[in-house]
Design brief:
Elements (H helix, E strand, L loop, with lengths): L3 E3 L8 H7 L7 H18 L1 H12 L10 H9 L3 H19 L6 E6 L2 E9 L2 E5 L8 H14 L3 E6 L17 H10 L4 E3 L2 H10 L9 E3 L4 H10 L4 E2 L7 E6 L5 H12 L6 E6 L2 H16 L4 H10 L4 E4 L3 H11 L3 E5 L3 H5 L7 E4 L5 H6 L25 E9 L1 H17 L3 H8 L10
Parallel strand pairs: 1-11, 4-5, 4-7, 5-6, 7-8, 9-10, 9-12, 10-11, 12-13
Antiparallel strand pairs: 2-3, 3-14
Length: 446
């Protein structure tokens, strides 16, 4: 059901050579880019009409308009299962608690008497948020996108999610995003919602349409077409990351419970047939026990043939055997998992030594599923090894740092000769002349 990679008995290579030994899904964003380019440009030129056509082509629904009416949001919240509503409210409360603490304050540094540099933080003016709606529906992603944007102080927030086919005859929610997505938006106070999915939704936010004003930034997970569209528009808009297939890596030793490890691997595999489930361990007995656990647990759950079995059997998933904890840490740092569980003795200390992970889950009582919904952390995280240079979504994602330079005449005079010297060393004499003009062309100190 899942393959093995045995790295025992050998010195591990460094850098890219080690990464190449580890399992990873094939995710060719560059190839997808050529397919989304005409879609994006069609939305640019035809706006809402193009979005309506793509909804029929890709989602199988006929729309008259893209924006979700306010009454549909209110109705979705009114009809929401009370238990789901309570769970979403708790998820929102915990996410706000964590993200509110991430706010940054303005800071002024006095470099010299009369010379200061202030860094102030300004929220992005308008953002477009994306909530997937393909194989599964993710109201949790609405929470994870909206809360940090709101806590950052973003004034204009719009959200897009794919329109759904009618679920039964006379279904008035057909052609709209899933009702639970709409209810989550209503709970969060987001009233600008669009029935648009895939690359065309990103294009709508990037270019704007008759119904939707252009955004400065687009965030949120999605499929390869969403990732490709984000790459296409990078430079025109800000993005969070090009999200690839979801990943879990578990670093475990002989103290880990194989039933817990197997359950956590399966929990990630049920997302998608390209989802990655990786166990890194120095305990062959644990590896054997996890394999034995997988079969009955997989048989007892849902989405087995279309998602879980292909994900576990795919090249992106494996049990990786290592010689010890040091090797295990080296492997998980090279892998840079979206989600990394530490199920070892003294798990907190081991977690403190990890450099590369989107989020780290410490010990047997902090499973990835908790982070997906109610830990308070954000589940929009870097994939594909990008955790070696990128972070998950946070309040900082929606803030811009601006330096404010304020020097008096005396403070400028003190350093002017250094500025002129460096300008002339770079063969940019006009830079130096800008200072000379302020001092009658005779710079102090020269």
């Amino acid at each position: 059901m899942i393959s093995r990679i045995d790295l025992r008995g050998n010195a591990l290579p460094e850098g890219g050579a080690l990464r190449d030994l580890l399992p990873r899904a094939e995710f060719d964003v560059e190839a997808a880019l050529e397919k989304v380019r005409p879609i994006c440009e069609d939305v640019h030129h035809r706006g809402t009409a193009a979005l309506i056509e793509y909804a029929e082509k890709f989602d199988g629904v006929t729309l008259e308009r893209i924006r979700v009416p306010a009454e549909a949001l209110a109705e979705a919240l009114e009809k929401l299962d009370p238990q789901v509503k309570a769970a979403l409210e708790e998820s929102i409360r915990r996410a706000r608690t964590v993200h509110r603490a991430q706010r940054r304050s303005e800071h002024t540094t006095q470099v010299v008497p009369g010379g200061t540099v202030t860094e102030k933080w300004v929220p992005v003016e308008r953002v477009g948020l994306y909530a997937p709606g393909g194989r599964s529906v993710y109201p949790s992603s609405v929470v994870m996108n909206v809360v940090p944007a709101q806590e950052a102080g973003v004034e204009s927030i719009a959200l897009a999610s794919p329109p759904q086919k009618p679920r039964f005859e006379g279904d008035t929610a057909g052609g709209l995003p899933h009702p639970t997505i709409l209810a989550a938006c209503a709970l969060l106070g987001v009233d600008e919602v669009y029935a648009a999915g895939g690359a065309q939704a990103v294009a709508m936010f990037a270019y704007g349409t008759e119904e939707c004003a252009p955004a400065n930034m687009v965030t949120g997970p999605g499929n390869i077409w969403v990732a490709a569209a984000k790459r296409y528009f990078t430079g025109r808009i800000g993005i969070d990351t090009e999200a690839g297939p979801t990943e879990i890596a578990v670093l475990a030793d002989e103290t880990a419970d194989p039933a817990h490890v197997a359950a956590d691997l399966i929990s990630q595999a049920e997302h998608d047939p390209m989802a990655a489930a990786v166990l890194v361990t120095d305990c062959a007995a644990l590896a054997d026990a996890v394999e034995r656990e997988l079969e009955p647990q997989v048989a007892a759950t849902k989405h087995v043939e279309d998602r879980i079995k292909p994900a576990l059997a795919g090249r992106q998933s494996a049990i990786v055997l290592v010689d010890g904890l040091e090797q295990g840490l080296k492997v998980v740092d090279a892998y840079g998992a979206e989600h990394l569980e530490i199920q070892t003795a003294d798990a907190a200390a081991v977690a403190g030594r990890v450099r590369n992970a989107g989020a780290i889950f410490v010990g047997p009582w902090s499973p990835v599923s908790l982070g997906d919904y109610c830990a308070g952390s954000n589940h929009v995280l870097p994939t594909g090894g990008c955790a070696c240079h990128s972070s998950g979504l946070s309040v900082q994602s929606f803030l811009k740092g601006i330096h404010i330079v304020d020097y008096s005449r005396d403070a400028l005079a003190e350093v002017a000769h250094h500025v002129v010297t460096l300008a002339e060393a770079e063969d940019l004499p006009a830079h130096g002349a800008a200072l000379k003009a302020r001092f009658g062309w005779k710079v102090p100190g020269q």
